[in-house]
Amino acid sequence: MAEATLPGSAPRSVAAALAPLMAAVFVVFLVTGVALPALPLHVHDRLGLGAFAVGLVGGSQFAASLVSRVWSGAFSDRRGAKRAVTLGLVMAACAGLIYLASLLFAGSPYVSAAILVAGRGLLGGGESFVIVGAQSWGLTLGGPKHTGKVMAWLGMAMYTAFAAGAPLGSALFASYGFPAIALATALVPVATLAAIAPLQPVAPKPYAQLDLGKVARAVAVPGLGLAFASIGFGGMTTFSVLTFAERGWRPAWLSFTVFALAFVLARLWLGSLADRIGGAKVALTFALIEAAGLALIGLAPWAWLGFVGAATTGFGYSLVFPGLAVEAVRRAPSESQGLAVGVYTAFLDLALGIVVPALGLVASFAGLGSVFVIGAALSASAAFVAARLARAQPFLPRPPS
User: Fold this and answer.
1) Cβ(159)–Cβ(321) under 8 Å?
2) pTM score, whole prediction
3) Is 33 exposed, middle or buried (0-12, 13-18, 19+ CB in 10 A)?
4) How far is Cα 117 from Cα 102, in angstroms, rounded to an integer?
């Protein structure tokens, strides 16, 4: 396959090529981010449902992303990454319309929650097509020596959107209620479609036959590590605002914002670290940092320590994903790059789609702090997986071009 590469190898060239993709990822995840502080409060306080329902509504997005990851990866490889991103944006806008429909049934909480599950599910599918398409697009533009940087910077755009979305969503929800969240979800992706229309697409990757089994085997171990590490992320997105509000640690939305800001700063500062020293080594170190942060949130007796825990968790989780992604992509066939990214990310969705609702059930009996203690233990397990990867296939730095 003739690889589309950038003229020159300077990091600034990679940044220039990724900038429009980062903008598209930022905008679509902004509409996801505005719902993060609002949905738990809407389901718990306005609809009057418990922690299990909160977990079910939150986890439905991850479950739908899981179902669509392989499809989105194969679609990106065969039909082109630009088409994948476009389809994802359309799905996200439709999710906002479903949010609006759920408000018509606010007097029947279970019906309204079921409609929200459908909307979150469609948004999960849209998110999958956008992020997998953008990652595949970026990996083609950047070339193999910038795998870690591409994954880190696109992820940085996503979590910057989450960081901005949390206070924005809280303000919208406090002033105008959930209808404002629904309208933003429906309208912003439509505007983004106009922004990506002028971008030059990359050619689809020609290959004769989809070998899903081969790709799945190649990325299975890095994917398992990602699944373990991502439980803490699921706890942060679904339960951090509720936990901080329950403990009287205000503003509660700041818990996820400091998580996302620490995440972004780590990727700005250390985004290319996995390309330079090896993904497994980076994932090992940062999974342990994430575990420490989650334990702080779960066990902290004071608000300031809880916020420190949220920032530490974001800093740690920041480089686990790109670190393990480097290991996954270099083990997969080059002609199935989009599929490899989709299958690898599906491990995150598998963990969150199953475990986040289960964590809500555990929290109903053991308290919300238990979510973060469990997440800490699983992040430590991710470090163990990364250590195994480092021993099994030592990293060999690519020579400079």
Assistant:
1) no
2) 0.67
3) buried
4) 10
